[in-house]
Design a protein that fits this description.
The protein has 232 residues and is of the alpha+beta class. Helix content is 13%, strand content 26%.
């Protein structure tokens, strides 16, 4: 009996020892090595080529503006200069516009408002000289009359009248910017100019005309109020 008890006790002790060792064996085991799953890289398109510079325009790619000056010699506005009082830009008349008296020859209208008309070589109703009227005026050479404003206000007509330096509306000057303006104590505010739009047919050899008047110097397009004294 005693022997059986001892045998049973040994079996129990042996089993307990085995159970105590089992966790150590499990804990001492190395974890399995896990290979990382390869991640597929998305396909990326190659960048498109970018031009390194913009194309350069050559002079032939840029249109050349048509000439605007008549084929005449430009004069200074010094005392005694004689010639056409011509618009610097030809506008729609290839021969250019000049300050002109209405009519011609025996039919000249010295009492009518002046106009801008196709420049006419050899005409005596377009030839002016500077420097008369105490150096502040334009005299129509062949008729001894001076450029004058009918009134000192915008849109006033321009005429020719007996030269008189003291007459209101006669002291016109031509400055370096090509403005023919009334010389008044508060500066150039009213300038000689032509009407905008298109010129009107005026007979002759494809002649054209425009109304002539005083315009606000600061609020009128420069091509309508810029003049030159030119030698026909």
């Amino acid at each position: 009996m005693t022997g059986r008890l001892l045998a049973t006790a040994l079996l129990v002790l042996t089993a307990a020892g085995l159970l105590a060792c089992a966790p150590r064996a499990l804990n001492s085991a190395s974890p399995a090595t896990i290979e990382p799953t390869a991640t597929a890289k998305p396909d990326v398109a190659a960048p498109t080529s970018v031009p390194t510079a913009f194309p350069t325009l050559t002079p032939t790619d840029i249109p050349t503006p048509s000439p605007i000056a008549t084929d005449v010699q430009t004069l200074t506005a010094a005392t005694g200069s004689t010639g056409w009082l011509s618009l610097a830009d030809n506008l729609d008349d290839p021969q250019g516009y000049c300050v002109d008296v209405v009519g011609f020859g025996a039919n000249i209208r010295l009492d009518a408002p002046l106009q801008a008309h196709t420049c006419k070589p050899g005409s005596d109703d377009q030839l002016f000289t500077t420097g008369d009227n105490d150096g502040r005026g334009f005299r129509l050479v062949e008729h001894h009359l001076c450029l004058a404003a009918a009134m000192e206000e915008p849109n006033a007509e321009v005429i020719v009248a007996a030269c008189d330096s003291g007459m209101v509306g006669q002291p016109f000057l031509l400055n370096n910017e090509g403005r023919v303006y009334l010389d008044r104590e508060y500066g150039p505010t009213l300038c000689l100019g032509v009407a905008p739009g298109s010129g009107e047919p005026a007979g002759g050899r494809n002649h054209r005309r425009r109304d002539l008047a005083l315009y606000d110097c600061d609020h009128t397009h420069p091509v309508l109020i810029t003049w030159e004294m030119v030698n026909p």
